[in-house]
Design a protein that fits this description.
two-stranded antiparallel ribbon, about 75% helix, Hydantoin permease, mainly alpha
């Protein structure tokens, strides 16, 4: 059996995990939820939720992955240190994660196609942002080029999938690690460029005041539940990504440090995304509570009020594309890793089959959901939205819940042994974390799960 590849160093792993979590969750979903929920109150609760849910849950999946050093299905049935067997039933949790990964990729890649559609149309001057434009103009563009142009969206979705294929066929080290080391610094550079430009706008002060100013009257139980759900989405929890990535992590790495670094970086990036958006929104006098259409319909209007707005808009959408790419390659790797190890496939074959199957049975239906197949509804939603709802509200949370139960009630002392690097690391946080994920965290996740189902 070949020796399992491990990340070159801690920084590379942290960058890769950060890339996995800095996707549309940070750059698209987080800003519009902030806008819908009154600004700073949401931001404050998000930071709190990252501490009470995000980082502890990442540690759960890191323990499962690094302990087994196997794919996200077989990781659940590796014998304990004392030789006792773990029931084959637990592989079911891994398979749930695969279904969740399929569900998110089914629509996620289409969002990537939307972003590439915007980039190409702005560059080719088919979507002009050089003068103040109206909401009717952006809505007409969205209606014509996104909702009612499945051929164009399908082409760019295929192109986005092809870029993923090119990276993934090279493997987890020569492919994912190599490209993330280049993409992440470039992503930060683009972030800083847009933020600096926006902070010099006339409405920057009002935008920042809305974004960071906490109105405590906005804080309620529903808001807290919404924030907890966003942490699941933002950190790619519940569908095997962290299990897969940490299975390539050296046994000498400090899991507590790496999980903390990742949670902090994800929070910083999410907060930075707000600085890219709200100063521009308030400069243009637009409504921040635009919902999911904030980025695609409202923000282009704001860019039209900014000097060199067309260029900044391209940079912004490139940020979205790179963030989506660093996430999608790691989600794909969950499924690819299972095919490689369980069916003994080579990387190129496993990559091709994975991306092709998801494209045919997930991406194409999601593209058609806003056009020819718009009348096909699942749980009262079109196909695109149904993939989002089912994967996020059912598979993500239920898989995360089972992971907590597995670590806290099945692995028990083996989990402590793993997180302490074979008892070499001495910290009171280890015992606190273990009891927390055994008794408290499953209850929090269960509440999020039930709350999510009430929206059916």
């Amino acid at each position: 059996m070949n020796k399992r590849e491990t990340w070159s160093n801690k920084l590379t792993y942290v960058l890769t995990v950060a890339g996995a979590t800095i996707g549309f969750g940070c750059t698209w979903r987080f800003p519009y939820l902030v806008g819908e929920n009154g600004g700073g109150a949401y931001v404050l609760l998000f930071c709190i939720a990252m501490i009470i849910l995000g980082i502890p849950m990442m540690l759960v999946q890191n323990v499962i992955g690094r302990r087994a050093m196997k794919n996200s299905v077989d990781a659940f049935i590796v014998d304990k240190r004392d030789g006792s067997k773990i029931s084959k039933f637990w592989r079911f949790v891994g398979y749930m994660g695969l279904i969740g990964a399929f569900g998110i990729l089914a629509y996620y890649m289409v969002l990537g196609g939307w972003v590439m559609t915007y980039i190409s149309n702005i560059i080719m001057h088919k979507f002009i942002l050089s003068a103040p434009i109206t909401k009717e103009y952006t809505e007409a563009f969205y209606y014509k080029n996104i909702e009612h142009n499945p051929l164009m969206v399908g082409f760019y979705t295929f192109l986005f999938v092809a870029v993923n294929w090119y990276i993934l066929k090279k493997g987890i080290i020569n492919g994912i690690e190599k490209f993330v080391k280049f993409l992440m610094p470039f992503l930060f550079l683009c972030f800083i460029t847009v933020i600096i430009a926006n902070l010099n706008l006339d409405g920057a002060k009002d935008g920042i005041s809305f974004y960071l100013g906490v109105d405590f009257s906005k804080i309620n139980a529903k808001l807290f539940i919404d924030v907890l759900g966003q942490v699941f989405f933002a950190l790619s929890l519940g569908f095997g990504v962290m299990i897969t990535l940490s299975s390539h992590l050296s046994k000498d790495e400090n899991l507590i440090q790496t999980a903390t670094f990742t949670g902090v970086i994800n929070t910083i990036i999410a907060v930075m995304a707000g600085f890219m958006i709200f100063p521009a929104i308030f400069t243009a006098g637009l409504e921040p509570a635009a919902g999911p259409s904030l980025v695609f319909k409202t923000l282009p209007i704001a860019f039209s009020y900014i000097p060199f707005g067309g260029i900044l808009a391209v940079v912004f959408f490139i940020i979205l594309m790179i963030a989506a790419l660093t996430t999608s390659i790691t989600i794909y790797q969950v499924i690819i890793g299972v095919l490689e190890e369980k069916l003994n496939m080579n990387t190129t074959k496993a990559t091709t089959i994975t991306l092709l199957v998801i494209f045919i049975f997930g991406n194409i239906p999601s593209v058609l959901a806003y056009g020819p197949w718009q009348d096909i509804l699942v749980l009262g939603r079109n196909i695109f939205d149904a993939f989002d709802f089912i994967s996020a509200n059912i598979f993500f949370t239920s898989t995360a819940f089972m992971c907590c139960v597995y670590v806290g009630w099945i692995l028990k002392e083996d989990a402590i042994y793993e997180i302490s690097n074979a008892n070499k690391l001495k910290s009171p946080l280890i015992k606190i974390w273990y009891n927390y994920i055994k008794y408290v965290l499953p209850v929090i996740i269960l509440v999020v799960f039930i709350a999510g189902l009430t929206t059916i």
